[in-house]
Specification:
This protein is an alpha/beta fold. It folds into 2 domains: about 5-60, Hypothetical PUA domain-like, domain 1 (Ribosomal Protein L25, Chain P), CATH 2.40.240; about 65-235, Alpha/beta knot (3-Layer(aba) Sandwich), CATH 3.40.1280.10. Helices cover about 30% and strands about 25% of the residues. Strands 6, 7, 8, 9, 10, 11 and 12 form a 7-stranded parallel beta sheet that branches. The two termini are about 20 Å apart. Mean pLDDT is about 85; it is low at about 230-250.
């Protein structure tokens, strides 16, 4: 890993060379969501091109729980907020789901990825979540692990206290949260979710929440109720989350912070 070279894309080169005005030899902290945080050396090659050369490992990549957030696509500003807060709350996978009542049918995955990287940079989080292509409701349910826990935000949950509902949930190897669109899931979708294996229905209180607010609230409740993810296995991120830093390979999931 030491002495590995990372070719920066145009935006990364512009940020370091023109916005921060760093010159060759400047030290930059960099991470890609997989290999930890590294102290690197900037090498400029002209006005618009630059590379980073890895020197020392600053922080090793920590193990992370397998957490997927399923959500109906939102409009730009709301989706930006959801992605940023999901990263801060420890989500490792973001999965847009097209439901019967979904109002936004198109999702800008590159914008989502950029927001995820920005949130990781600002908060010093070394994990960059996988951004999935939008999928239909039935296809999304089919990806759920049979040994995992599915947290369903349901205003008609039988247990009013969400902490009690999650404390009673069995230990599982993965966790997924399901957030519906404006207007909620239709009756058929709701029935499918309730009948899924390993589902825990939780209430988010007496007030109606926006979908992005509901996602943050649900993640906060899950973190608080499960503590250090009691009973959950931890693992490194899959290769699809971010490429390993390798000599000569551009890495578009690379995040950078000047020292």
């Amino acid at each position: 890993m030491a002495n590995a070279t990372v070719a920066l894309d145009h935006n990364q080169s512009n940020y370091l060379c023109n916005v921060l005005r760093l010159g060759s030899g400047s030290r930059v902290l960099a991470f890609n969501g997989l290999d930890g945080e590294w102290r690197t050396r900037l090498e400029r090659s002209g006005k618009r091109a630059a590379t980073l050369i890895a020197e020392d490992l600053v922080r090793p990549q920590p193990p992370v729980p397998d957490v997927t957030l399923f959500f109906a696509p939102l409009k730009h500003a709301r989706l930006d907020y959801l992605v940023q807060k999901a990263v801060e709350m420890g989500v490792t996978r973001l999965a847009p789901v097209l439901t019967a009542r979904t109002q936004v049918q198109r999702v800008n995955l590159e914008r989502m990825r950029a927001n995820a990287i920005e949130a990781a940079e600002q908060c010093g989080i070394l994990s960059i979540p996988e951004i999935r292509e939008p999928s239909r409701f039935d296809a999304a349910l089919a990806t759920l692990s049979k040994s995992g826990l599915l947290i369903f935000c349901d205003e008609d949950a039988e247990i009013a206290n969400p902490f009690d509902a999650l404390r009673k949930a069995p230990a599982a190897s993965t966790i997924a949260l399901m957030i519906g669109p404006e207007g909620g899931f239709d009756p058929a979708e709701r029935a499918r979710i309730i009948s899924a294996p390993g589902v825990a229905r939780i209430s988010l209180g007496p007030r109606i929440l926006r979908a992005d607010t509901a996602a943050v609230a649900a993640l906060a409740i899950a973190q608080a109720a499960l503590g250090e993810w009691r009973g959950f296995e931890t693992r490194g991120l899959e290769a699809t989350v971010g490429e390993k830093i390798s000599k000569g390979r551009p890495n578009h999931d690379l995040a950078i912070l000047s020292e």
